[in-house]
Amino acid sequence: MTYLTIPIVAKNPDQARHQIETALLAGAEMLELRVDYIENLTADVVKGLIVEIRTRAAKNVPVIVTCRDKHQGGATDYPAGLRIDTLAAALKAGAEYVDFEYENFLAPENRGKIRSALSQSLKGKLILSTHNFQGKFPQISNLYRHVQTMYVASVPKLVYTANHINDCFEAFDLLHNTGGERIIFCMGQAGLISRIIAKKLGSLVTFASIDEQTATAPGQITIEQFKKLYRYDAITPGTELYGVIGSPVTHSLSPAIHNAGFADIGANKLYLPLLVDGGAPEFSEFMRNVLARPWLGFRGFSITIPHKESAMDYVRGKGGFVEPLARRIGAVNTILITKDGALKAYNTDYAGALDAITTAMEITREQLNGIPVAVLGAGGVARAAVAGLTDVGARVTIYNRTISRAEKLAAEFGCDFAGLDKLAQIDAKLLINCTSIGMHPNVNETPIPKEFLKKDMTVFDTIYNPAETLLLKQAKEAGCQTISGLDMFLNQALVQFKLFTGTDANPDLVRKTVLDCLSRRQLI
Ligand code: NAP
Questions:
Q1: Does 131 qualify as catalytic in the annotation?
Q2: Cα–Cα dist 301/245, whole Å
Q3: What global pTM score does this model have?
Q4: Which residue puts its alpha carbon closest to atom 20 of ligand 1?
Q5: pLDDT-derived band at 523, boundaries 50, 70, 90
Q6: 485 Cα nearest atom in ligand 1
Q7: Confidence check: pLDDT of 106 > 60
Q8: According to CATH, what is the number of the domain 3-236?
Q9: How far, in Å, are 8, 18, 23, 101, 154 from residue 157 at the CA level?
């Protein structure tokens, strides 16, 4: 069992009682009393807190008592003698675990006192912990063995900072190759996934904070995020993993969308934010790490900036399948890993754009054949839209600030092109904004003067934040039919979900999830 554990980081017993109450109400499965945070600490204070926990409704919730050395991240510089006395008192009062630093345990005097306290406790166990706040341990497997040898009945706790997501795989290997009670994960933003999949891999504990203010280590997430966003209660050793590979990924809506969808169809699947910093070499290393460890259960990825092109090259290089139109676009945003480790890559952006257009215009893809379309922009989204539209025979003209980019894209897909100074001459049935003009926070900007909009045009803005841009407002005022970027985003997510699961997601649930996320974000 992996316990979702909340550290209690109070300055005094009253504050501690309040935090304990809140943590238990939030669903903590274990509490860690970080008594190094308590001012004027005494052994009696610690004993009192444990007795109180034992008299509450959640009296069976196990407790770890930690009085961390300041040199290893502790809050107060308490002497070793007092720190050990508090652990001894905790064991006497019935704490299930006490945590002491492995490096300090090497001192015979400390070791003797702790062994003696443990020998007088019926159930208390020792967590021997070691942290590296700078980066990976030089030889983590050897260190693990040394910790175990030092006190055979101990629970080794090895925690280090991941400076890149690729640093996490040593922690995963160690969990995979060991058994029994042990605590292994990575700190820092790049280590986030190790905290979430700790349960899948069987770590005794993963730590969550009550809120962002009370986090005790870099990269710790809140219990609400664990439970609501990352489906903590549903994770099992057999859970299949998915995720969005990109940099940055913190604000991606994809974890919320896909996890809500997985929960809705009862799939044993979990979707993670996968922060892969760097370029093609780091992307390739991440993929190598994943493919070398089928037991991790990764089965699919969404790919976002800056890895869409590297992802296509990687899959082609491995002899995998790349959807023909994705090949022409030169970028993929979805990768599947089959059960036998083969790769398949797709681009759901163009499909999302085409679905948004055909649904709004109430036509089929085939009926887009011959329709004059003006595409504003020549970046990644414009490329996907142009590929999809030319594939079904639409007559596309690309307008862009940097005319050479428009020219290049037009040459690839057999379109016309022009500069933004030619917008007055637009004569299109469908106008698509693929520039970032008008995106939050520049919501008062628009890529085209409103007098150039004609009422028989359909106007599609690929921007989805805000859902209704100034362009769309002015298009409505001009009597045009409008399509929001939200529709494209939702449609590409629906196509991707189907690739991940073979099942259609509930579109209303996906829309509600996205709108909830966007409205929360705009309050921040
Ligand atoms: P990109 O590759 O960086 O391309 C940006 C485009 O916008 C380029 O054509 C650029 O012109 C133009 N541009 C930017 N600022 C401009 C300005 N001040 N004046 C004139 N042109 C300007 O970005 P992208 O990945 O294609 O994304 C474009 C937009 O699509 C984003 O803003 C995003 O909101 C939206 N998007 C929507 C979805 C969806 O699913 N609905 C998905 C992804 C992105 P130059 O070539 O001259 O630089």
A1: yes
A2: 7
A3: 0.93
A4: 401
A5: very low
A6: 41
A7: yes
A8: 3.20.20.70
A9: 18, 28, 22, 9, 9
Pocket residues: Cβ below 6 A from ligand 1: 352, 377-382, 400-402, 405, 434-437, 439, 462-464, 485, 488-489, 492
Q: Tell me the per-residue pLDDT of 278-314, one tens digit each, with 9 for 90 and over.
A: 999 999 999 999 999 999 999 999 999 999 999 999 9
Q: Where are the alpha helices (DSSP H) in 157-241?
A: 169-177, 192-196, 198-201, 223-224
The amino acid that residue 516 corresponds to is D
What percent of the chain shows pLDDT beyond 70?
99
Taking CA atoms only, the protein residue closest to ligand 1 atom 39 is 489
Task: Answer whether 172's CB lies under 8 Å from 293's CB.
Answer: yes
Which of 434, 460, 492, 494 is the best mutation target for the ligand 1 pocket, counting ligand atoms within 8 Å of the beta carbon and taking the most? 434
Q: Whose CA is nearest to atom 3 of ligand 1?
A: 379
Which ranges in the chain are annotated with CATH 3.40.50.10860? 243-346
- Which residue minimizes the CA distance to atom 7 of ligand 1? 435
How far is CA 138 from each of CA 128, 132, 219, 374, rounded to the nearest angstrom?
18, 10, 22, 57
For residue 489, which atom of ligand 1 is closest to its CA?
40
Choosing from 47, 113, 125, 157, the catalytic residue is 157
Average pLDDT, the chain: 95
Residue ranges, comma separated, of all CATH 3.40.50.720 domains in the chain are: 350-483
Reported as a single tens digit per residue, the pLDDT across 139-149 is 999 999 999 99
Give the pLDDT band (50/70/90) at residue 4. Answer: very high
Catalytic residue (one of 69, 167, 173, 349): 349
* Whole-number Å distance between alpha carbons of 229 and 232: 8
Measured in Å, residue 489 CA sits from the centre of ligand 1 at: 14
The single residue listed with the structure tokens 């215009």 is 361
CATH architecture of structural domain 243-346:
3-Layer(aba) Sandwich (3.40)
Residue to probe by mutation, ligand 1, list 401, 421, 465, most atoms within 8 Å of CB: 401
Ligand 1, atom 25: closest residue by C-alpha: 380
Mapped onto helix, strand or coil, the DSSP state of residue 162 is coil
Match domain 350-483 to its CATH number in 3.40.50.720, 3.30.950.10, 3.40.50.300, 3.40.190.80: 3.40.50.720
